[in-house]
Amino acid sequence: MTLRRSRLLWAIPGALALAWALLAGPGGLQADGGTLRVSNVPMGAYRVNVFTDPTPIPPDTIDVSVLVTFERGRGMARGLDIMVFAERLDGTGSRIEHPATREQAEDPRYYAAKFALGSVGEWSITVQISGPEGEGATTFDVAVQEPGIFGNPFLILTLAFLPLLLVGWWLKRTRTEPQAPS
Q1: What are phi and psi of 3, to 5 degrees?
Q2: 3-class SS letters over the chain
Q3: Burial letters for 118-148: b for 16+ Cβ neighbours within 10 Å, e otherwise?
Q4: CA distance 144 to 135
Q5: Phi, psi of 62 (to 5 degrees)
Q6: Average pLDDT, stretch 103-119?
Q7: Would 144 be classed as within a structural domain?
Q8: Residue 5 above 70 pLDDT?
Q9: Containing domain of residue 102, as a range?
Q10: What is the phi/psi pair of residue 147, to 5°?
Q11: CATH number of 98's domain
Q12: pLDDT 10s digits, 49-97
């Protein structure tokens, strides 16, 4: 096997692995709503998991998805009243409340609330649940920020495929070079 062919055998898997890593990104744990914020919090007979999407959270949109199951694996909880409250932590008094419903969720197992926070900064999000087998609330903090240059999906796709284009260019260049006799 020639040295060029050996390099080629290592270059293609490396480029594919790099492209996959760039496409996958640091998305964290994914579900209906995205990044897991609250995990398995007991509220009466319920167990509550809360996800937010996208990450990082921009001021113009947030999806708070809530997955509620029964303890001891009895399935999904239905017929719940779920409210999501968002409050700025800087003391400006900005407060938003929005119901979470199954109709807003992409996955029928979830309840979701989709709304805009409207401004950059630190926010506290409270999810309040009420149902026939219990009630409760859980709170977590999020940082709302502008997405920046890497929030553009076209840029990320271009960066993901750039290694493949470079390997193709390298392969074409090595094929057109004259080989010295052995």
Answers
A1: -65, -40
A2: CCHHHHHHHHHHHHHHHHHHHHHHCCCCCCCCCCEEEEEEEEECCEEEEEEEECCCECCCCEEEEEEEEEHHHCCECCCCEEEEEEEECCCCCCEEEEEEECCCCCCCCEEEEEECCCCCEEEEEEEEEEECCEEEEEEEEEEECCCCHHHCHHHHHHHHHHHHHHHHHHHHHHHHCCCCCC
A3: eeeeebebebbbebeebeeebeeebebeeee
A4: 28
A5: -145, 140
A6: 93
A7: yes
A8: no
A9: 35-150
A10: -65, -25
A11: 2.60.40.10
A12: 999 999 889 999 999 999 999 987 778 888 999 999 999 998 787 899 9
pTM: 0.66
Count of CB atoms situated within 10 Å of the CB of 3: 7
Q: Are 120 and 103 in contact (CB under 8 A)?
A: no
Residue 19 lies in a domain: no
Phi, psi of 105 (to 5 degrees): -80, 145
Please enumerate in sequence order all residues whose Cβ is within 8 A of that of 92, keeping only pairs 6 or more positions apart, or say none. Answer: none
| The residue type at 80 | L
Contact 109, 76 (CB under 8 A): yes
Overall residue count recorded for the chain in this entry: 182
Place of tokens 């990320």: 156
Q: How many domains does the chain have?
A: 1
Cis peptide before 178 (omega within 30 of 0): no
